[in-house]
Amino acid sequence: MGELAAEKHVEYILSVEKKKDSFESVVMEHLRMNGAYWGLTTLDLLGKLHAVDVDQIVSWIIKCQHDSGGFGGNIGHDPHVLYTLSAVQVLALFDKLDVLDIEKVSTYVAGLQNEDGSFSGDMWGEIDTRFSYIAICCLSLLHRLDKINVENAVSYIVSCKNLDGGFGCMPGGESHAGQIFCCVGALAITGALHHIDKDLLGWWLCERQVKSGGLNGRPEKLPDVCYSWWVLSSLIMIDRVHWINKEKLVKYILDCQDLDNGGISDRPDDAVDVYHTYFGVAGLSLLEYTGLKAIDPAYALPVDVVNRIFIGRQSKKES
Amino acid sequence: MASSSSDEEFRQWIPFRQRPEWSDVKPLPQDDGPSPVVPIAYKDSFVETMDYFRALYHGDERSFRALSLTSEAIQLNPGNYTVWHFRRLILEALEVDLQNELDFTEAVARDTCRHHRRWIAEKLGTIATSKELEFTRKILSLDAKHYHAWSHRQWVLQTLGGWDDELSYCDELLEEDIFNNSAWNQRYFVITNSPLHGGLKAMRTSEVSYTVKAVIAYPENESSWRYLRGLYKDDNHSWVNDAQVSSACLKVLSAKNNYVFALSTLLDLICHGFQPNQEFRDIVDALGTPDSDRQGSDLAKSICSVLERVDPIRANYWRWRRSKLSQAV
């Protein structure tokens, strides 16, 4: 079996600004906050977070905050819950959550909950279970889950459960590994995993593994490295990860590396990007690949970061 | 993804600073901070368009020229929430005919404009129904499993109606690709939600026939087997006792090809009380290697052994299933 080219991936992430005129660069502008989360979390998992300038990043993040308390994808961009979570997660990596006006951020996020318990992504109202996860994860990291109606949030997620045991973006939506991660993660954080038929969902999830060892996100779709995260973290949260063939999955992820230039792609021999680099490394961490920090499957942050938030100091108890 | 026609547009593109109607505007450059975290190199046209957008956005100018500027910005980068957001504010301020707006968003059809469409559709009401269904159909004709197109289509059906042709649309898609999991999911969505059909129980007989044909023709199709199971939601008794289901399993097993799902379905049936006759036992025996798979008189255990062998990537799962059988009453 090959090896993880850790040094190359670190170089790739640190040098991504040197890519001129790449399509990825052009469209990344509005979601730079997500890109920062993917890149920096990967660096932390590889033990190289110290390679970046914390103060510069923190001051940039603060500039991305909107009057409403939410964060945009970049400076001057409108707030959305997607970027708000990434901002909070990056600050958590650096143990800089105290730069936040926690009341302000959590009020923004909590304000996106609808009457039926669902969450909108922003003021324009799009509803998706992804936003349920994002809101719950974000508020939990800030110790402010008390600001939302957790019961309604849980019941909305449960209403998105399908007969195959999986979850979609809204009631009736096709089961999809990404949506499943969000729903399972949200239920894990709110202590509501008993709503899941773990055996049924575990089987659906382990059926995502194809002959090459990679994982797809739905039946009859191609495998993609990002599902190494979505499927795997879900399996871990419901305690069924032993149902996939770990060795074959490790091999698949390693085969998706660009060993010359660094970075990881969706499948072998495709172009790499920061998104898939993060999910590949995070997946390997969940598979306990040597040399990587452990990652928390629900919060998608290194375990030591999560411990610091929930155990490390005297903090408000979760409601 | 720039098409060749938009490449031509770029070649003919006139910088804003050369356009007389924009001479009063002072462009606002992007403030990335001193050392960008993920600094990005842009095309000049993109830079300038966004600089002018920023100027109008901060000045909150909701004019027709602002509207056309957002059109340009969106075509350069349809994923930018801020631009779409400001466009909506302008549309409201100008009280533009939103049917034209639907045409615009269709021309720039991308994932991220789906809630823009939804916003428009909600304002237009049921006159938007056929346009929205047509819009999603177009996307699905290019990518029949496009997740966001399907969720938008489901939203339209639930909010605005238009169920009439939905089941036959599913038929069409499944005829093109019987393995399309999204189409099977949509079929279930129609059966269980459409006011035009009688609901799951009423549709069960015809749907079981339909699905049994599918599983026999392509027994390796995970979606069709799951759909079959779903038709008996909350009614395991009917599922276990429907001869069509067990005989479908028998047919597939007899052909000795791609029988993993047939086996797992048979296993589930037995676990829910199905009493297999000798024919089933003989068929499963015929699949096994003489010594390794036979587990005495326990057919369910034999099935698990076969599955461990023929679906080795999930060996741990099948082993667990076998262990659970010992615990069963």
From TrEMBL, chain A:
| Ranges of residues in domain Prenyltransferase alpha-alpha toroid | 4-300
Is Zinc among this UniProt entry's keywords?
yes
Provide the alphabetized UniProt keywords: Metal-binding, Prenyltransferase, Repeat, Transferase, Zinc
Q: Which Pfam families match?
A: Prenyltrans (PF00432)
Q: Which SUPFAM superfamilies match?
A: Terpenoid cyclases/Protein prenyltransferases (SSF48239)
Q: What class of enzyme is it?
A: transferase
The cofactors required by this protein are: Zn(2+)
The EC designation for this entry is: 2.5.1.60
- What's this protein's function? Catalyzes the transfer of a geranylgeranyl moiety from geranylgeranyl diphosphate to both cysteines of proteins with the C-terminal sequence -XXCC, -XCXC and -CCXX.
| Name the UniProt record assigns to this protein | Geranylgeranyl transferase type-2 subunit beta
Which organism does this record belong to?
Ziziphus jujuba (Chinese jujube)
Automatic annotation (TrEMBL), chain B:
Task: Give a Gene Ontology cellular component term annotated to this protein.
Answer: CAAX-protein geranylgeranyltransferase complex
What this protein catalyses is: L-cysteinyl-[protein] + (2E,6E)-farnesyl diphosphate = S-(2E,6E)-farnesyl-L-cysteinyl-[protein] + diphosphate; geranylgeranyl diphosphate + L-cysteinyl-[protein] = S-geranylgeranyl-L-cysteinyl-[protein] + diphosphate
Q: Which SUPFAM superfamilies match?
A: Protein prenylyltransferase (SSF48439)
Xref: InterPro entries: Prenyl_trans_a
Instruction: Name the keywords, alphabetized.
Output: Magnesium, Prenyltransferase, Repeat, Transferase
Q: Which GO terms describe its molecular function?
A: CAAX-protein geranylgeranyltransferase activity; protein farnesyltransferase activity
Spell out the protein name for this chain.
Protein farnesyltransferase/geranylgeranyltransferase type-1 subunit alpha
Where does this protein come from, organism-wise? Ziziphus jujuba (Chinese jujube)
Phylogenetic classification of the source organism:
Eukaryota, Viridiplantae, Streptophyta, Embryophyta, Tracheophyta
